């Protein structure tokens, strides 16, 4: 007997009102975030933009030298004044008369290559790149963690609307959103078995670490996973890609700077800047890392020791899982063969762990760095079957979102409005809870979603 016609669409088939509404919410949230960026001058972006052009012009010999930093600030400040008072460039130049150069030569090379000389145009392009990076990264992470599209779009809307570290990154115009996309592409590619994908994953990771080395722990934990499973072919492919990406970054920056010496200058400056009391960024400057918070409270540095302890815990979990996930233990996938389900889930879980460790052990952590907590939050909130099996994990994910939302939601009342000691402890404690939850809720195998 033929079923009567109906205009009710089966759940999960084709488009749905839920997907449409979630997409609209995400669109409105993206437009709101774009508006936030348009309301600021690009405080951090200006420094990257200035240094990239100063090197291209041969204006200074050593961008990490105080005299040359002052020279760059003075020259570009005068240029901004000549361009006209009241412009975005003039406004930020008034506050950036001394250029602080913490970043790698490759980061400045990238900005130098993309700069057109028109600050407004370049800032707009960078803002668009950052927004697109966040949108793509969140949707790719959600897919890797098993989210359905309506839920993924809703999560995107929520993050774009009220995730305090993300809003802080937009206001400062830093590069954390671009980095988030880089590490997401790496985990998606590393979750595949095709040889080309593994080489590409290593290359993306190599470029990302050369761009900003705070993603270096991802290299360590991914290497630990492959070593624990004795997957030598995967180690070789990932390693080859890593060397290719890092080598290309070093070579490109050597061409831009006129030699490899810039990397030595950067390493020498960074070592001094992080641990010299005269140069160190304090809590008053916005540095709310656990290492700095404890240092100012007790006089002791704990970041390195804490990082080692956390990495040992990760290593123990990997060792216990060394015989798990048989689909990933197989050799590289021949062209055209299907991918193993859940492969990206395990790599994503591990990358989220590495990012949490990095946030907890770093000697320098500003509020916008906690953009890197997004993978951990999305992993904790991922769906499970049966749903009751993930109740504690979901509760932690929801509480973590609330903690990261609190400063933004309370900003109007003045509470937690600036990145200070209280917010630093709140974000650090939240990240520690996320780390513990991730450690206790590893994916049990490539075909399991619990």
Verbal overview:
Helix content is 68%, strand content 0%. It is an all-alpha fold and 450 residues long. The protein has a domain at 133-188 and 260-333 and 341-440. Helix 2 crosses helix 5 (105-114) and helix 9 packs antiparallel against helix 17 (343-361). The longest helix has 26 residues, at 119-144. It is globular. The relative contact order is 0.11.
User: Helix segment count?
Assistant: 20
Shape: globular
Number of strands: 0
Largest sheet: none
Average residue pLDDT: 85
H/E element sequence: HHHHHHHHHHHHHHHHHHHH
Instruction: Provide the helix percentage.
Output: 55-70%
What low-confidence regions span 5 or more consecutive residues with pLDDT below 50?
5-14, 325-331, 335-341, 413-417, 445-450
- Using only C-alpha atoms, the radius of gyration works out to 23 Å
Q: Distance N terminus to C terminus?
A: 40 Å
């Amino acid at each position: 007997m033929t079923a009567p016609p109906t205009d009710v669409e089966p759940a999960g088939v084709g488009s749905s009102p839920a997907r449409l509404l979630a997409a609209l919410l995400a669109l409105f949230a993206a437009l709101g975030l774009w508006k936030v960026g348009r309301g600021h001058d690009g405080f951090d972006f200006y420094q990257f933009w200035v240094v990239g052009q100063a090197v291209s012009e041969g204006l200074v010999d050593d961008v990490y030298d105080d005299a040359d930093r002052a020279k760059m600030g003075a020259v570009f400040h005068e240029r901004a004044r000549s361009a006209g008072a009241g412009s975005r460039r003039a406004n930020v130049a008034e506050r950036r008369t001394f250029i602080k150069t913490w970043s790698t030569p490759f980061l400045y090379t990238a900005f130098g290559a993309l700069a057109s000389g028109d600050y407004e145009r370049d800032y707009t392009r960078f803002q668009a790149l950052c927004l697109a990076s966040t949108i793509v990264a969140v949707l790719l992470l959600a897919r890797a963690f098993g989210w359905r599209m309506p839920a993924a779009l809703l999560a995107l809307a929520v993050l774009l609307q009220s995730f305090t570290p993300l809003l802080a990154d937009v206001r400062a115009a830093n590069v954390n959103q671009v980095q988030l996309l880089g590490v997401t592409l790496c985990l998606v590619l590393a979750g595949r078995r095709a040889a080309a994908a593994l080489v590409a994953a290593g290359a993306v990771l190599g470029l990302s670490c050369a761009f900003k080395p705070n993603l270096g722990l991802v290299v360590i934990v991914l290497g630990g996973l492959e070593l624990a499973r004795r997957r030598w072919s995967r180690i070789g492919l990932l390693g080859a890609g890593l060397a290719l990406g890092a080598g290309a970054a070093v070579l490109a920056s050597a061409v831009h700077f006129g030699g490899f010496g810039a990397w030595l200058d950067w390493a020498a400056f960074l070592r001094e800047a992080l641990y010299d009391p005269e140069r160190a960024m304090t809590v008053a400057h916005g540095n709310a890392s656990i290492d700095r918070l404890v240092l100012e409270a007790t006089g002791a540095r704990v970041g390195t020791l804490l990082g080692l302890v956390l990495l040992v815990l990760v290593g123990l979990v990997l060792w216990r899982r060394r015989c798990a996930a048989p689909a990933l233990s197989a050799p590289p996938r021949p062209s055209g063969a299907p991918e193993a389900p859940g492969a990206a889930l395990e790599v994503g879980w591990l990358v989220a762990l590495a990012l949490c460790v990095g946030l907890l052990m770093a000697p320098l952590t500003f509020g916008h760095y906690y953009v890197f907590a997004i993978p951990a939050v999305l992993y904790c909130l991922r769906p499970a079957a049966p749903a009751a099996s993930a109740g504690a994990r979901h509760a932690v994910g929801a509480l973590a979102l609330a903690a990261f939302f609190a400063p933004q939601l309370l900003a109007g009342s003045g509470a937690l409005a600036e990145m200070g000691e209280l917010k630093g402890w709140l974000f650090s404690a939240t990240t520690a809870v996320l780390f513990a939850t991730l450690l206790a809720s590893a994916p049990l195998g490539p075909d399991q979603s619990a």
